[in-house]
Input
Amino acid sequence: MALKDLIKSPWIIHFDTGSCNGCDIEIFATLTPKYDVERFGILNAGNPKHADVMVLTGPVTKKTKSRLLALYEQMPEPKLIIAVGDCACSGSPFTNAYNTEGGVDTCLPVDVYVPGCAARPEAIIDGVVKALEKLDKLAKGEPVQPAHMRGANDVPNEVAEGNAAMKAILGPTAGPATVKKEG
Amino acid sequence: MDWLWLAISTVITVIAPFAVAYLMGIDRRITARMQNRVGPPLLQPIYDLLKLLSKTKMVVNRGQLILATMYVSMSILAFWLFIAGADLLIIFFVLSAAAAFYTLAAYAVLSPYSQLGATRELIQLIAYEPVLLLAFFCIWLVNGDFTSVATDKALVLWLPLTFAALIIVLLVKLQKSPYDVAEAHTEIVSGPEVEYSGKFLGLVKFGRWYEIALMFAIISLFFGHSNIYVAFVGKVLIVFLAYFIVILVDNSTARLRFGQMARGVLPYGLALTVINALIVWAIQQEVIPWP
Output
C-alpha cells in the first residue's frame, strides 16, 4: 500500500519556476514553528530524490521548464504536485507572455491548485491536506472528486474567471503569438 | 555460548532498531516542545521508513548500492556482536568498517554534495574514532577485560570524564548540531545520503538506526548493579540522560565548520579520556589514596 504510507510522511521539495518570491516567502512562513507542519509528518527534504510532494510557485518560464522536468523525473513514484499561487495555477498575469509557458499544468500533471496572490500559509497547509485526502481516496480505491483531479488547463473557477476577465480586456490575441514557439 | 542466549541476542537485534526509532520519535517531540510547537507523532520515524520502503526503486549507481548494503550488514553485525558479548575491540573494528563502507558508498557517485559529504564523513571518522577507542580502553581499565558483557560496577562513577567524551562522540554519531557536519541538511543537502532515493534511502536509514543502537548500548555499559532490575532501570535512565543532553545541545547550538568539529572532538575527547584513565590508574596503583 504505497499510497497509504505516503499519507503520514509527505516530504516536500519546493521549486520556484519563476515566481516573484511572494508565494516562496509564504511557503517559508508555512515551514516555521508558528504553523508547525511537522505535526503532519511534513519535512522540507530539499532534494527531489528524497521528496514525495513537489510544491511549485510561479509561472513556468521557458528557462525553468527543463529544470522542472529534470527535478520531476528524479522523484521516485508515487509523487504529487501542488501548484501554489495564481501564477503556478494558470500563469495569471503572465498568460501569453513571450517568456513563459503558462501555469504548471502546461508541463506537468497538477494534483492540487492553491490559488491566491500570494497564497496564505493556511491555504498552503489546506492544499497539502487536500492532496493527502486525494491520496487517501486513491489508496482506498474510491473515486476521486473532480475538484482534486483537474486535467490540463482546467483551473479553479476563481482563476478561470480572472483569466476570462483578462482576455476580455486584452482581447483574444493578447501577447505576441508569433514569438511564442514550442519547446 | 549456548543456543538460548544466541536466540535471545538475535531477538534483541531484531527489536533494537524499532526501539531506536521510538526514541527518535521522542527526540522529535522534545525538540518540537523546545521550539514551542507540537511536533510529529511518536511513531513518525517508523512511518517515514514504511513510506520510503514503499516507494519505487531508482538506482544511480549499482556499486553504491552494494557498498550501502555492506554498510547496513556491518552495522547489524556490530550490534549483534555487542549483544552476544563479544570483544569491544572487535566491535570497534566492525563499526569502523561500517563507517568506511558508508563513506565509500558516498564516494561511488559523482554528485559534488555526496563527495563533499564523504570527505566530511572521513574527517569526523578521524576525529571520533580515537576517542571511542580510548573510551573502550578506560572500560578495560576498570572492568579488567574488553568484553561487552555488563558488569555490576557503576562505571559512570569511575569514568565520568569518559562519559562526557562519549556524549561528544554521540553528538557526531547522531548527526546533531554543532557536529552534524557530514549530513548538514541545510548546507550540503544531507551529504552522503543525497543520491539514495526511496527504498535505498530507507535501507541506509535502517542501518543508521543500528549504529545508533550500538552507541546507546555502549552508553548503557556505564551503569551496572548486582540486582538485575536495578541494573536495567539504571541502564535505561543513563541512556535517556545521555540522549537528553544531546537533544539539549542540539537545540541550543548552531552547526560548526568541519575543521572546528575536528578541533572540538579530537583534543577535548582525548584529553577527557586520558585524564580519566590516568586518575583510575593512579587509584588502582594506590598513588592517590582512596577509601
